[in-house]
Fold each of these.
Amino acid sequence: MNKVKAIVLRAAGINCDQETVEALELAGAQAARLHINSIIKDPSALDDAQILVFPGGFSYGDDVAAGKILANQVMHHLGDAVRGFIDAGKLVIGICNGFQVLVKTGILPGFSESDGSSSVTITYNDSAKFEDRWVYLEPAADNCVFITPGRRLYLPIAHGEGKVVTKTPESLDKLLEEGHAAFRYVDSAGGQGGFPVNPNGSMESIAALTDTTGRVLGLMPHPERFIRRTQHPFWTRMPENMEADGMTIFNNAVEYVSTNF
Amino acid sequence: MKHWRYEIFSRTGFADVTGRDVLHEIKELGIDTVKKVESSRVFLIDADFEDQFARRVAAELLVDPVCENYYIGRRPLPDTGGAKSLIEVHLKSGVTDPVAESVTMGITDMGCKPAMVRTARKYVFYGDLTDEQLRFIARRALANDCIEDVIYGLEAEPPSPHTPEYKLEHKTVPLLELDDEGLTRLSGDMDLFLDLREMKTIQSYFRDKGREPSDVELETLAQTWSEHCVHKTLKSAVTFSYDGKTVEYDNLLKETVFGATQELNKDWCISVFEDNAGVVEFDETDAVCFKVETHNHPSALDPYGGAATGIGGVIRDPMGTGLGAKPVANTDVFCFGMPDIAIDDVPAGVLHPKRIAKGVVSGVRDYGNRMGIPTVNGAVYFDPRYMANPLVFCGNLGLIPNDKCFKNQQPGDLVVVVGGRTGCDGIHGATFSSGQMTHEHENIFSHAVQIGNAIVEKKTLDTLLQARDKNLYTSITDCGAGGLSSAVGEMGEKLGVEVNLEKVPLKYSGLNYTEIWISEAQERMVIAVKPEKLDEIMEIFASEDVEATVIGRFTDTKRLTLKYEDTQVGELDMEFLHDGVPKYSRQASWNTPKLSEPDIAAAGDYTDTVKKIFSCYNVASKEWIIRQYDHEVQGGSVVKPLCGVATDGPSDAAVIRPKPGTQKGVALSVGLNPMYGDIDPYHMALSAIDEAVRNLVCVGGRSDRIALLDNFCWGNCRKPEIFGSLIRAAQACKDGAMAYSAPFISGKDSLNNEFKMADGTEVNIPATLLISAISLVDNIEKCVTMDFKKPGSLIYVLGLTKNELGGSHYYYINGELGANVPQVDLELAPKLAAAAADAISAKLVRSAHDCSEGGLAIAVAEMAFAGELGAEISLDGLAVSDDCDTAAKKLFSESNSRYVFEVEPDKSSEFEALMAGLPLANIGTVTDNSLVNITAGGKTAVSGDIMEFKQAWQKPLAW
């Protein structure tokens, strides 16, 4: 088959695009960085790719709310293109700011309140501060193609608005019952807890969401920042053959595309 | 046109994070009658849309429907719960409002372009407040007078957004006939900060020309000749009397700091002291460049904005070096007043140190994080004398292709300004920062504070790198201090340049040609473009919504020509502009103070002393700051600022891998110790260099590829004894650089950090030399960190511990300064650093930590708690000088050039062999428990639990 192709979206303020490309290439994909203006001009640029990445950063300065302006732009100019991409069985991943964009477009979790308004949002950390720290993640969804079931990951977060909240308790139930919670924040032994185990106060320790297809993933932690051993915060204490957890996400994506396309 | 007003506030059941923070700050101000604060975001939108669309704008764009509600119009005070008063904070007219720009874009995406968007913040207070208290809260906690207006109550109107149109009025300034007094007065009236000799030089130039100068010509000279831009103090000739001897310098900088660089003449230095940053070799294809700047005065007035533009500005230095570097790492170092001072003891016109600290940290955080550049290294230092003159050092490391390290602008090339628009912000920044601060400063120089917008800079960077790689421009520099006047003036120095000032894109109308020319508005770069490449480069900028405008042309006239529309408003000879500033002869003196060692009674057990030192602000953990900075973006971090089992140990230095596909890295470190300067600035400076070197070596940096940067922040250098202390430090810079064979590659100074209080008292900052250092790491896999790794390992100390408690933290907690300041053995120190680097490179060492603030006891305890292991140590075998004869001296002396290593037993003989002939001692072992036990002469000197030490260290700055 042909090489797996990924598009990493660029826009004003996105700043994790290059390392995301590096991660995808390490996983065996061919990855191109494309500016949103050029995709809006020619949405067929997406046709050739099987993975679309909304990377981390501060799109449009996170003005109004994190990811909001870019989400608005995507909805009004690329809504059909992105929905078409997902409907074609392809993969979409949003990391950090990209996750915020996917939630604020409504692509994640993919359902809304009865009045049409959003059920889920990502808002300010309980600490009210931007925080850079490493967290453990326990897979919680069993149908998400990006996830290796049972494999706990250690990855960094770096955000000020990462708290996943729902508008109503019913929406939270629905998230959990329908398997939208893709990862939960846990401690090194797998237990849930308060700060800093759950670094932002997310409801039910939710760190990541997936849609009903399992082919769209949004997560606050940055898998592209742990693709080499020397990125681990205490790699100097760890065995030399240690695997880089972040790669599992990208490897799973590339493997899925290789098998299904 | 309709005027829409939206108020957006938290929905019941969802936290109002901002309101909660404000309430906390009000309590900190000593007001406890407020029970609750409710915050709202306010949007004022002028647009032609109808009710239904207006509601969509709120619901779909402005509001987070999950956790917020909105109100269209002016929301009355809630009639329940005791809401008593409200205020709104609006930006002053003309101040950059990035959120408004984004909202404009968002509404346009929805299908209707608004005519104007403004934003504000509204606060409702529950509880009784007098008008006076309300104003106090507004001023101290909510608004910054420099950039914001506060309106009180429901009836008050927000400030008008409109600025008047500008009609050209060409102004000349009568100068030729002025006497000395008149010249001095003119300099003062125009805020030129030029002294009489400089004014007379200008007068004589224009007498030769036979005409009066225009306002813009005088302003251009004032900017270009400012201390900030030309460093006239450091470049002056000096007669220096030092302890009765006299030394003459013809050019201080050339004969000290730069002199060492010239003598060392390293072939790996590509471009030093000539561009916006110093450039050194990295590998076969790329070089790295490094620059550290200060942004002190603006940060004193507006901590958030001042610091944000400080980091924004220094990022533009590598962007404007050679043909442009990609920024890959930030560093930051702050000096503040004591954060626990009572608010009533803070003088008029000065912000509380804690507010400054919080604002500065937030400013660097928001700008650095938004730029996507990891902030990897830094330091914070507290001293009461920084209260009115806080120091904010921001640094940036860039990666630049080897074939893009030099500029090559030619006559005929177009002058193109790229990035942000020009506004009134930052006018007179260069000259203002060269003067003394006073209690009235914040009123007079409010316009000297620039306002930043990181996303504009990020977009500009993204496009410039594409244009660079396609060779579409011939030269680039940043608009920093002095604005276009400095940037364009420097680029045209050897050629000549003509600028049409009316072409410069403006944020709003009303700027006159002088304001356009000297504005320090942020996020602007100037490039030189060949006319035939213009279309191609403009297309790149346009494709990513970056503004770029041709504003002039380089010529071969050797003259700077300024035009507005068709009128020539200024013309200066480049030679006079750049070389006309009169050379100074200054007097300086230094008399080593007569100090003595205190007599502190020996204690049997020093465990509590160790805890007290850990809790000193200058030793305490800076985790509160570090975690607010993204230190991992770009994926290059190898040694992060925090390390160890719980990722909370203090790394000695940072290591980053600046590009994919390499095993090579760059280590970054700092050295700073103002406390030693109170005893002897020479040894302070050598200590700073030694500390920076130790830090680099401890993480795996090479000891033979170290490049240094200097930042001199001093008090009023017109005072001979203050200037004298700077000269002693500069002499040490030369001696240290030569000894370590480590050239200075760039530097910067900020002199005259003096504050005049309302009663006339003048407070000078302590002599502050920041040494920032970088080194190559050949193989990042060989880097080490400072946390103990394995029980049973041997603990070694390399280097000699001496009777050097002067300026130590041990003396500090006992209220003493002392006399025996740590010195550097210039023969031995480089050998120790080289041996340490060799041992790490040979993989003989599991952990390494430099011995610095607090001394050996602190270093070992830090290694233990970071590794969550214990240590069993005896001081008896320590390599010491003869007079280092007490437990206190061995535990707490801050002698330089010392390294603590963890070595596994099977590597110890090889390790010891490598260290043969050097002062080295095995002082103990790493243990499998949580106790640090240190004995001297068989008796316990320290015995404490690592978690207690860690707690003492983490508590003071856990804000």
Amino acid sequence: MKRVLIAARGEIAIRVARATRELGWIPITIYADDDQFSPHVKAGLMSVRVSSYTDIDSIIDAALRADADIVHPGYGFLSENPDFATRVLESGIGWAGPSPKAMKLLGDKQSAKHLAVKAGVRTLPWCEVKSGEEALRCAEKLGGRVIIKASNAGGGRGLRVAESPKEAARLYSIVAREASVGFGGKAIVYLEKLIDHPRHIEVQILGDNYGHIVHLFERECSVQRRRQKIIEEAPSPYAEKYKDVRQVVLESALRLAEEAEYSNAGTIEFIVDPKTGEAFFIEANTRLQVEHGVTELVTGIDIVKRQLLIADDKRLDINQEDVRLHGWAIEARVYAEDPWNNFIASTGVLKRVRFPESLWVRVDHAVEEGMRINERYDTMIAKIIAYGWTRSEALERLRKALAETVLSGVETNLDLLRVIVEEEWFQKGEYNTLTLEENLEKLLEKVDERRRMASLMARKLYSNGARRFMVKTVGNGTSLLGRVAVNTHGWPWPPTTWRGHHFA
Amino acid sequence: MDGHGRQQHGEDTTSRNARIIEVRHEDAGVYIIVFESEDGSRSNVRVRVEGDIISTPFGSYHVSELLSASKTSKKRRMAGKGSSIGWLVDFEGGVARTKLPVKVVEVYKKPGENVEEGEVVLVVETMKMLNEVPSPCSGVLVEVSKSGAGVPQGGILFRVEC
């Protein structure tokens, strides 16, 4: 029986705790002082207090006190920090992630690019710059629009797009400073050619400590807002249409992972120029990703469980030919963000929470009614993942699942998601990383109109003046003539065909 | 619309400025609401009341979400529009006030200098993100906070004489 310390919070901590329990092992969670009543804390057999989720010393101390055999970092926080991984391993504890060496090689965008060149994987033309003047010259050389990145950029930070060489010079200083403010330490800044309206396709890889590496096919995450992923799907509609693109990204990802002697779970990200079908490696994520669930559904492989087994030095029990694609999965991320106020984080107490319950819908979340959404942490409330044999079936299930979901008390992007999945470009799978932003204004207007109509209806039905319409309602249900309609289901109950039947 | 008040594929039931002209009680908690749009066309929307949750063809809502007036007001809609810095900085006259506590990391302009509309005056940091704050108008910069200074919520970042 292994003891697994989960150095994360929220839904991913619960996800890892489940996998741990399935193995018959013991999950141990951690909590910060302002987070001790969050649902993830209870997912562990016990939970240890830490000073913060990013305090390495405190977490190592917690792992030692809890007598942990393995540390799983989840995603975010310290999951991609090679120093943390090193400290864990030096403390004699297993690490559910790649070796610190591979993390450094692939995690740093710049060294990852050098490695890609070595492995014969295509990358975007780029140059390293150390001053605004160098940035100017480099931008002139690359031509067109360029992207300015810090090698340790992430989450939209340390990253800007310049339209002209002059702008590149000005933005250089901002990116350089942002990199040092946000992450500490010196970062390399580089310029890269910008691909117009690209698609974002990534490959999930899984490797053990004995050099056996497999890919679990690709995911597409092109529905983004300012580089924040909103909807992801597996497989990619683009790669499904152009099988040679799939071939290229899968082979490139494997070559790169082998070159880095990668172990455990990781993701190799590419951007694809939809006009030419060329795929360029952009970066690698040396951790479990938020959107791993769609890959799990279409391959049937429990990635988190494999991560734990690999950390326990077990051999990977999957050969490449065992990995097949079955059906389609689409994930929508619900964020506590206010779409009417530039997506600023929304805080408040969740008054009512209802998630869809279905065989075909997986909901990963860590919220409950009465819980306060804390602005200090990630604003993601839930991942709603629908599965289907075909893309249209998965899409239909996602639409229904989103319609059944209720989250009140904070502003969310739920209405926006409902509108996105009905858009023609989404239904056809013809979108790129800018489609959402370009259509945002129009989509929000649609949301507004739907909200307005729903409000009018609610006023009619719930206001005091409208009592003559109303049946008796209480918190969780409605009753008429002693018959009860409950709201714990997302569909009408009793069904409308009940009239004419006799109920005992 | 199918029999359960759910929207069918491709069916757009929203219509601009439609108003309710009739509410029909159909079944236990099930209502047919008749909307009439400006051009006189009518559409039926079937909703279901399940306690404090209302299921509409547009999705399910908790009533509290729909009864609070702020949700659909035009004012809120406008908040997201305008300049890309509007979420962080309030411009009134020539005064730039921050809506969140920020730290000034770099100041490009000195008091007394001329600034163009849209020209970046200073860079502030909040939530580990750097944001360039442009001048709302062309004029003379009268007052500007110092580099490295922390500015509390509602504090003045700079003032431009337009």
